[in-house]
Every structure is written in structure tokens, then in C-alpha cells.
């Protein structure tokens, strides 16, 4: 069966493995409109190896995350107060963990530096915390952001909030027809050197892109 010309031109960002573009020009425009900043955050939402299982389930995981947090609002408030008393030096650096690896799901509030790191030595959570804090004057509801612990095979991974990442990474990446029709300028050429892309007709997932 032949693949349509439109489908064959689609591209996936090889950095986060989440964003999909209709063309290289659209990818470059999105990169300049914000994806440059949120690419790493999205990568930390799909796990250290960019599992297709997690990528394909992001919206479902985000739905569970939102449902659990809203449904246990009183419990979250209590745990935030307890964490603020237990970790007074880090009261402005608290993170809410939604543990979906157990039934029923459990909530924890702990300082950001206590989160499990992905394989490797990159201090991903402090970097994400800096990004989130730059967009907000004070932690909402007593914590900076939420994370979700999930199963991937026999392993467990703590992922950055899918609901937050999907909302913040794509809000403002829409652009007018005029922008897409503009010719590529020198800045776009420079930016393209930093772009990671992957043709969608390639089935393999790159393993060397880390948060």
C-alpha cells in the first residue's frame, strides 16, 4: 500500500519523541515558538528511553493523574502541610508524587532533590524545577509540580507530570499562516542545527537522547 505524500513528510522530534510536525518548516517554526525550551521537559515525561508504550499512553496517564489529584484534594493538602513541617528548608521546593504502581494509587509530597533520577548523571529534576518556577511566582497549592510513578515492564520510573507537560509544551506553539509562509531566515538556519528530527517511516526509537 502506498503512503500518501503528506504522511511521508511527517516528522517526529528525536529529542522528546512526542511532537510531530507536517514538515521541516513547521518543525523549525515550533522550535522557535517554544519547543526549544520544552523539548527536554517532554523527554522527561516519556521516560529515559522514550518508550512508545508511554508515549502512546500520555493522555491516559495525564487523565489518571488529574483525576487522582482532584479526587484526593483534601489528602494532598494534608500531605503538603506535613511535608512543609518535615522539610522546612525546602518548603518552596516540594513536589507531589502520584504513585500509579500500586492499587489504590498513593500520594507523596517530598523535596525535589529526593526524586529518583533517570539513568545517567544529569540532574534533571532541579532543571525542570527552575523552568517551572520561572513561569510561576509561587508554587501552586504548596508544591511546584507533580510527577507520576509508573510501571514499564518490571521497572518503575518517575515521570514528569504528563498533564503539565502536554499543556505547557504546546500552549503557544500555534502560529498564523503568515508565519508558515515566510521564507527561512538566517536565525532559522542557525536554530535548525539544534533541531532533532526523525522521519515517521523509521520504526526504531533512538536510545541515545537523554533528558
TrEMBL record:
<dbReference type="InterPro" id="IPR002893">
    <property type="entry name" value="Znf_MYND"/>
</dbReference>
<dbReference type="GO" id="GO:0008270">
    <property type="term" value="F:zinc ion binding"/>
</dbReference>
<keyword id="KW-0479">Metal-binding</keyword>
<feature type="compositionally biased region" description="Acidic residues">
    <location>
        <begin position="198"/>
        <end position="211"/>
    </location>
</feature>
<dbReference type="Pfam" id="PF01753">
    <property type="entry name" value="zf-MYND"/>
</dbReference>
<protein>
    <recommendedName>
        <fullName>MYND-type domain-containing protein</fullName>
    </recommendedName>
</protein>
<feature type="domain" description="MYND-type">
    <location>
        <begin position="1"/>
        <end position="39"/>
    </location>
</feature>
<keyword id="KW-0862">Zinc</keyword>
<feature type="region of interest" description="Disordered">
    <location>
        <begin position="177"/>
        <end position="211"/>
    </location>
</feature>
<feature type="compositionally biased region" description="Acidic residues">
    <location>
        <begin position="177"/>
        <end position="190"/>
    </location>
</feature>
<keyword id="KW-0863">Zinc-finger</keyword>
Amino acid at each position: 500500500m502506498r503512503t500518501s505524500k503528506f504522511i511521508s513528510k511527517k516528522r517526529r522530534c528525536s529529542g522528546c519523541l512526542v511532537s510531530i510536525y507536517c514538515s521541516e518548516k513547521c518543525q523549525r517554526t515550533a522550535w522557535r515558538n517554544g519547543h526549544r525550551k520544552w523539548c527536554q521537559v517532554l523527554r522527561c515525561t516519556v521516560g529515559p528511553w522514550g518508550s512508545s508504550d508511554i508515549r502512546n499512553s500520555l493522555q491516559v496517564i495525564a487523565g489518571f493523574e488529574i483525576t487522582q489529584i482532584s479526587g484526593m484534594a483534601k489528602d494532598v493538602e494534608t500531605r503538603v502541610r506535613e511535608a512543609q513541617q518535615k522539610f522546612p528548608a525546602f518548603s518552596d521546593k516540594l513536589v507531589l508524587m502520584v504513585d500509579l504502581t500500586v492499587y489504590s494509587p498513593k500520594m507523596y509530597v517530598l523535596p525535589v532533590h529526593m526524586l529518583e533520577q533517570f539513568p545517567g548523571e544529569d540532574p534533571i529534576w532541579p532543571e525542570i524545577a527552575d523552568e517551572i518556577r520561572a513561569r510561576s511566582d509561587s508554587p501552586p497549592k504548596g508544591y511546584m509540580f507533580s510527577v507520576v510513578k509508573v510501571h514499564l515492564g518490571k521497572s518503575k520510573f518517575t515521570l514528569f507530570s504528563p498533564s503539565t507537560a502536554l499543556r505547557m509544551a504546546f500552549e503557544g506553539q500555534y502560529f498564523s499562516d503568515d508565519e508558515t509562509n515566510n521564507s527561512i531566515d538566517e536565525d532559522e538556519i542557525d536554530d535548525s542545527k539544534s533541531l532533532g528530527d526523525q522521519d515517521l517511516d523509521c520504526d526504531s526509537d533512538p536510545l541515545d537522547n537523554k533528558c
